């Protein structure tokens, strides 16, 4: 099967360019603050291009809304987080393997990366099978994952991982250290005296005492001495270590493009879902807006400025919500009132609602019917810049 994106129902639609610029209206609407907060803990996924590319067709918006609804299940959310963590460990091991220079050490960490990958994929299959999925996006990906895990490539990878791990688990050897001389020889069934020594000294134990044990750094690197020890151990088990080398050569491209793309794209949903959870825990509502391009009538209830609400919650202040509606031929708002009365906040709220709806995300509010725009324009007051040698009125006219 061909992987179908969980962000776009059309599998042929290309993903946003990695260097997608921030839209011009972002700072006016404080959307830059919202995006920064959403991606703060997921920088490695570079989610900004997805958040800088709003949708202009209602079908794709609803496609994403359905996936968001599926992810309201906390067990599913946690299992996908577990998958993502396993993939992060896999990438860490793979990057470590690429940086190592000693034979067998490099191949060993590569195999550990592949093992993490297999466990991540199999765990994700179980998670999706256990979930009651309603969205076509996750249902299609589940079918893709079943086809992939049944493929000859993945079956061979999983079998080879298990075989090499089992073979390496049988390796036993002895290291004898005499001054600066290190001798490596095969294990000959020597007794483990640890239990006997501990038993002998147990009678002298008189409660908690100072710990005189030395702390060794637990690092993944290997010194030249350790590399020499490993090389000599390999001579005792040539077939096992040859299997490790063969695994490295045979499975260099084990990472499936569809699994890798899902791992990144699903973070769009996870990041936003985790971000709004804080607001929901405080009693604020989020809803799935009814979007349309057929009518420009709008109705919104209990909406709020998401960027401002984050600051209010951090300061322990109350978040004020607003309703608004446009009916019949109405197309514009004129908002009046005193300074610091909330006019700018209201304007930002309206812009944020339309932009977030255009991403397919739940929006602040208990209910919303919104027109899906093809562009958003904003013109807010900005500080004067002496470098451009323009007065405030001229600067406003140039920008608008």
Can you put this structure into words, describing what you see?
With 400 residues, this protein is an alpha+beta fold. Helices cover 50% and strands 9% of the residues. It has 14 helices and eight strands. It has a four-stranded mixed β-sheet with strand order 4-8-5-6. A hairpin with a 2-residue loop joins strand 1 (173-178) and strand 2. Helix 7 (152-168) runs antiparallel to helix 10 (238-250). The longest helix is centred in the N-terminal third of the chain and has 26 residues, at 74-99. The model has no long low-confidence stretch (mean pLDDT 93).
Percent range for β-strand residues = 5-15%
Radius of gyration: 29 Å
Helices and strands: which structural class?
Answer: alpha+beta
Which sequence of SSEs, written as H and E, runs from N to C? HHHHHHHEEHHHHEEEHEHEEH
The coarse overall form would be elongated
Secondary structure tally: strands: 8
What average pLDDT do the residues reach? Answer: 93
Please write out the topology.
Layout: H1 31-39, H2 48-51, H3 58-70, H4 74-99, H5 105-130, H6 136-149, H7 152-168, E1 173-178, E2 181-186, H8 194-201, H9 224-236, H10 238-250, H11 257-281, E3 286-287, E4 290-292, E5 298-303, H12 306-315, E6 322-326, H13 343-358, E7 363-364, E8 367-371, H14 392-399
Parallel strand pairs: 4-8
Antiparallel strand pairs: 1-2, 3-7, 5-6, 5-8
Helix pairs in contact: 4-5, 5-6, 5-7, 5-10, 7-10
List keywords for this structure.
two-stranded antiparallel ribbon, alpha+beta, four-stranded mixed β-sheet, 14 helices, 400 residues
């Amino acid at each position: 099967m061909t992987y179908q994106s969980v962000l776009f129902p059309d599998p042929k639609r290309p993903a946003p360019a990695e260097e997608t610029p921030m839209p011009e209206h972002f700072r006016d609407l404080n959307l830059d603050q919202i995006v920064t907060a959403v991606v703060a803990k997921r920088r490695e996924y570079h989610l900004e291009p997805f958040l800088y590319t709003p949708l202009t067709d209602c079908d794709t918006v609803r496609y994403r809304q359905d996936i968001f609804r599926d992810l309201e299940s906390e067990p599913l959310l946690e299992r996908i987080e577990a998958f993502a963590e396993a993939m992060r460990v896999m990438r860490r091991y793979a990057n470590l393997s690429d940086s190592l220079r000693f034979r067998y050490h490099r191949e060993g960490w590569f195999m550990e990366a592949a093992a993490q990958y297999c466990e991540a994929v199999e765990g994700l299959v179980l998670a999706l099978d256990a979930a009651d999925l309603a969205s076509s996006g996750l249902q299609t990906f589940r079918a893709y994952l079943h086809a992939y895990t049944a493929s000859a490539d993945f079956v061979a990878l999983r079998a080879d991982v298990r075989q090499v791990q089992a073979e390496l688990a049988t390796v036993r050897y002895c290291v004898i250290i005499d001054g600066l001389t290190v001798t490596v020889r095969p294990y000959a069934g020597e007794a483990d005296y640890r239990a006997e020594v501990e038993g002998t000294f147990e009678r002298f134990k008189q409660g908690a005492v100072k710990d005189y044990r030395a702390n060794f750094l637990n690092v993944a690197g290997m010194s030249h001495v350790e590399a020499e020890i490993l090389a000599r151990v390999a001579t005792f088990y040539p077939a096992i270590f040859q299997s490790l080398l063969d695994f490295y050569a045979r499975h260099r491209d084990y990472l499936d493009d569809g699994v890798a793309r899902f791992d990144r794209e699903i973070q769009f949903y996870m990041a936003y879902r985790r971000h709004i959870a804080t607001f929901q825990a405080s009693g604020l509502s989020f809803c799935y807006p009814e979007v349309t391009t057929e009518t420009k009538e709008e109705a919104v209830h209990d909406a709020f400025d998401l960027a401002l609400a984050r600051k209010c919650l951090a300061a322990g202040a109350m978040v004020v919500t607003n309703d608004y509606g446009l009916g019949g031929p109405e197309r514009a708002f004129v908002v009046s009132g005193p300074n610091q009365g909330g006019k700018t906040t209201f304007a930002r709220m309206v812009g944020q609602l339309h932009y977030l709806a255009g991403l397919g995300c739940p929006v602040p509010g208990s209910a919303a019917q919104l027109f899906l725009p093809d562009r958003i324009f904003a013109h807010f007051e900005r500080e004067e810049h002496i470098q451009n040698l323009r007065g405030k009125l001229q600067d406003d006219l140039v920008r608008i």
